[in-house]
Each structure stands twice: as structure tokens, then as C-alpha cells.
Design a protein that fits this description.
It contains six helices and nine strands. With 182 residues, the chain is of the alpha/beta class.
Amino acid sequence: MTYIEPDYWATFSAPLTEHTINQLFSVFTQFFQTRPPRIHLLFQSTGGSVGDGIALYNFFRSAPVPITAYNVGNVASIATISYLGASTRVCSAYGMFMLHRPSNQIRFNARTADLARDSLRLDEDRMSAILADRSNLPDAMWMDHDTDLIISPALALSSGIATEIGEWLPPAGSKIFNIVTH
């Protein structure tokens, strides 16, 4: 009789920083060694740096094991882009997404202002390309808003940000890994 590894269940609730995504990378690469059929990730994040969020998106996309990400409350800012990297994306009936265009609150002198503007434009282009590739969110919704774009579960499903509405429900007896990011 052949043993079949069960699905893995994990939780991640943190802003996306180099430290927190490295913690997630570390745990997931350990998971990959045992080749579970699927990894289920409760994903809760207020966002963070664009570069870190896009790195997490690419990590999810290239994972050797299918990943199901669950929005159980709030996935915001660049974390919404990261979430799009999961092969299956589930949003709780009470979940919510938020998107906004990249911004930089740092004050710049005249010499660095052009570089900052170019960097923001590049970040916006990268985010737009991922949204276009992984969802059908109308460009006008993303590009024409001046403030935060709040996305309900129904809009997330109809636009392809979420692939289904459902809840994070590990089967009884499942081992749940908490990705601690202290």
C-alpha cells in the first residue's frame, strides 16, 4: 500500500515585507520537499512593498504543488496581486479586497523625483500586467480611481480575482502550520 501525503494547511497574517515573505518561503519550501497534493493557505495581509508582493506572486505561480489561497477577511494593496498567483483563489463570503495605485510617501529632492516617478510607473505597469493576465477586472476600475478600490466577494468572483466563494475549512484532524513572522 502506498502512503499518500495529505494536503497541508497553513496560515499567514502579516504585511508583505522581505522578512515576512522569507518566512513564508522557508515554510513552503519545506512543504515542497514532501510533495503534498495541495497547500491550503489562509492569507490575510494589509499589503506592503510592491517588490515583495510581486516576488510572492511569482513564488505562488511557480510552486511545484498547487496552492489554494483563502481570503478570510482582508487582502489589500499589493497582497491582492500576490493572491492572484495562487492556482485556486477562494474568498470568504465576508472577505474583501482593496487595490490602489502605487504611491510613495517619501519626499524627494529634484534629482531623485524623476527616479521616484519612473519607479512608481514601473510598479504600476507590473501590477497592471498581472491584473490583466490573472483577472478580467475592467481597466477603467483599476486605472481610473483616485482612491482605494474596494472589491466585494461578488466582484472578486465575477472579475476572476477569486475563483470561488467559500470558507477556509480544514478537515478534522488536519495539522495546521502557522507561519510566524516575528
